[in-house]
Amino acid sequence: MRHAFAFAMFFCLCVWPAASQAAPGDTRKAAGTVQSDVDAIESIEADLVKAESSTDIAVFERTLAEDYVNLNPHGLGPAKNEIIAGMRPHAGQAPPYTVEMHNLRVYVLGDTAVAASVRTYTAKENGNNANEDSTHIYARNHGSWKLHISRASSCPMN
């Protein structure tokens, strides 16, 4: 019985993981899929910055999940419908600030992705700057990425 247990442990620890590994061609395919997912999230992040700079409601409607959670430096922020409703009167207009994204890092974990970046907001009137550390959590739903959680906090100027 002791030998059967030892054999089972050996099988679980050594043989099974080795047998279940992907073939080299499959690994390259998986790496390519991850890179295409990273590229897709990077594109969405760039679209969000452009949409904020031009008050493009369509991007927010398309990108934000229905159960979107917005965590900002002052607590719980507006939900998807509140963001869109607040933008409607200003649709297509440039806001009184500019926004730039820096140091974007994207991590893909299966059907979940995390995008972390720093955004710099500059007031057009007086040039005042504010940096925001931002983390976005995406989930792939029916083949498309949707932003489910956004977390932002103030961070020191560079």
Overview of this protein structure:
With 158 residues, this protein is of the alpha+beta class. It has a single domain, classed as Nuclear Transport Factor 2, Chain: A (Roll), CATH 3.10.450.50. The chain contains four helices and six strands, in the order αααββαββββ. The protein has a six-stranded mixed sheet. The longest helix is centred in the N-terminal third of the chain and has 31 residues, at 24-54. Residues 1-29 have low confidence and may be disordered.
Outline of the structure:
The chain has four helices and six strands; from the N terminus they run αααββαββββ.
Record keyword descriptors for this entry.
six-stranded mixed beta sheet; alpha+beta; 4 helices; Nuclear Transport Factor 2, Chain: A; about 160 residues; disordered N terminus
